[in-house]
Predict the 3D structure of the following.
Amino acid sequence: MGKQAATIVDVARAAGVSPSTVSHALSGKREISLPVKERIFKKIRELDYRPSFYAQAMKRNSTGMIGVVVNECRNPSASLFLDTLAAELEKYSYKIVIGLAGLDHRKGEELLRHFSAGLVDGVINLLPQITPEEAQILCGSTPVVTNIREKLIPVRLDYDQLTRNILNYLWDLGHRRIGYITSPSRDPHRPDGEATRQIMTEFLKSHGEELDPRMIAEGDDSIEGGIAGTEQIMRLGNITAIFAGNDQTAFGIYRWAYLNGVRIPDDISVIGFDDVPQAATLIPPMTTVRFPVQELVTHTVKLLIAKLRQETLPPGQITLDMPLVIRHSVADRKRISAGRRKKALPSGKKNKTIPSIIL
Amino acid sequence: MGKQAATIVDVARAAGVSPSTVSHALSGKREISLPVKERIFKKIRELDYRPSFYAQAMKRNSTGMIGVVVNECRNPSASLFLDTLAAELEKYSYKIVIGLAGLDHRKGEELLRHFSAGLVDGVINLLPQITPEEAQILCGSTPVVTNIREKLIPVRLDYDQLTRNILNYLWDLGHRRIGYITSPSRDPHRPDGEATRQIMTEFLKSHGEELDPRMIAEGDDSIEGGIAGTEQIMRLGNITAIFAGNDQTAFGIYRWAYLNGVRIPDDISVIGFDDVPQAATLIPPMTTVRFPVQELVTHTVKLLIAKLRQETLPPGQITLDMPLVIRHSVADRKRISAGRRKKALPSGKKNKTIPSIIL
DNA sequence: CTCATCAATCAAAACGTTTTGAAAAATAAG
DNA sequence: CTTATTTTTCAAAACGTTTTGATTGATGAG
């Protein structure tokens, strides 16, 4: 049972040497004679000695770990991000430690505090409800990078333009009444809430229409949120397309559609956001925006590593594309209204409204 | 920038008291006079002092954290499990720390070693490729629970009976040529590989048929694996149903079906395993086995906590149900072959072949 | 034979806490 | 005004490492 773990002192005693000799044998920082070395390693194996992680960390003042805090990982967007982060951090031989904060705001703060009390060398904050400033305060002197999906310093993600492009794309296909389900966020630059409202207003005005604010529903990146949002929007009547701030939310649209006997894309068109692997498995396969996970993760990690090493990154921003992956959840209303009740897929037809990938 | 974090000694000096007094003020284990206490807390705030996690862990010889190691979390089954674990562990005020091992066997072992060198108080191993015995060796004296989904000690999950039930269910609906895509596992009691082969063989023999071993394809719990497995099985011809060891795999079946113009359930019936939230959002909503995540997690954590406290659990096993959640991805072939090309859903009709939930 | 050189090992300090027994100061009892 | 008691604070040890300067004994040069 609870056998006490052996310490370096136990090993030293067993091998008849001093603890420092064992340490040196292990680290190879000083010459140790062969016979002694063998004796030591034999005892290490016998006693199943493993250096205490925290004792080491305390001496070195470093743990070789990066902490990532996130609300939950049940959302495929989140879990994909985490997997990618883990792989990227491994390249720098950092281990990743994930903290799950749940939906509770308090727990997230506590977790950041906890992590940055020396538990990890650096922190990546994925909680949207905590601003970069707050995160830095919570983390004290531990380097932290936040706001990954919004405005990571060396990266430019033009959500506003994306929203315009999507609107344009749908408009060109004959959609006039378009709904949107937000993703929770504080930053005004994510295509949600205020920003989207403004852009949609402008867009519609330039086409001589007016925005009904109820066409924008508040989502929470969950399937249930997606269902509820769809319900709210569809009640408005004559809606022909909905786009969502998150694929998980968009799955909710599919669910609502099935539950209400509404066909995709014949009756309602759907556009998601993230392009999680499951998006392609839906029937019809979902048209969605591809979020550049890998690139963003690469830059996130680069930035964090630079902070850790107290280096400064070469200035300059790189703009990452967010192309629309065109599958089959968006209908061409013009063809439909022209009487031909064919599943009208914009296949082949290269469009100019938005950078896209046709699958 | 890299301002050194303040230590308890800094605080003590600043407040003109000894470090132990600060410690006591913080822990409340001894009475400290009000004015001194106030002085101390003022300085703590000023210096943004936070107790070093390791130093504390080292003294207490405990970290208050449980380590969970898993291959990846992109699979919804895995991420759901993790979220549930986190919530459950929180009830015991343990924090969860997730280690992502990727697909590399070596990294998994390393991670277990690393965790159990004092980084965490206990370990939950979710890597299927590591046996309970191996895990215990890797973890040394750190308590570890493994093999969660297969045979967690206090829990009985009858995969063999489940397989028989599913076979029966499909057979009753007129399915004769049934494929299966495995989930990777070492344990012979999971409904995959050998176990399933044997049960299918028996089942078919008792119905006067013989099993074509190619009807069992090897999956890896990925969408791609599901697509490939489906391809292999469908090539055999005349297949009317496939069931998968994992919902993610089953998503692959949907994908293959769409890509090949095969309709679900009219042409091919699909049954998944786990009942992840996304399963209901597919069109048609997927029939799948509900895995009792919450219950299993509850017992897993109970077992681990018992080990941590060096208590022994009251003996006895509890059997957890794995009901079939009947949605709309399985067709009634009898009605179909009777000429009526109606989407034949076994709705309402209570069947006796398998415990089920009809949605 | 003496002194310098080198290899191998050790002892002690340090990392930042908590804990405990003891000291000092304040209060109460006689 | 002692003495006992209580309250408040301190000093030192301990946790398990790593690091560094010192010590020992052996080896080689002169």
Summary: Residues 340-344 of chain A have pLDDT under 50 and may be disordered. The radius of gyration of chain A is 27 Å. Chain A touches chain B through 61 residues (CB under 8 Å).
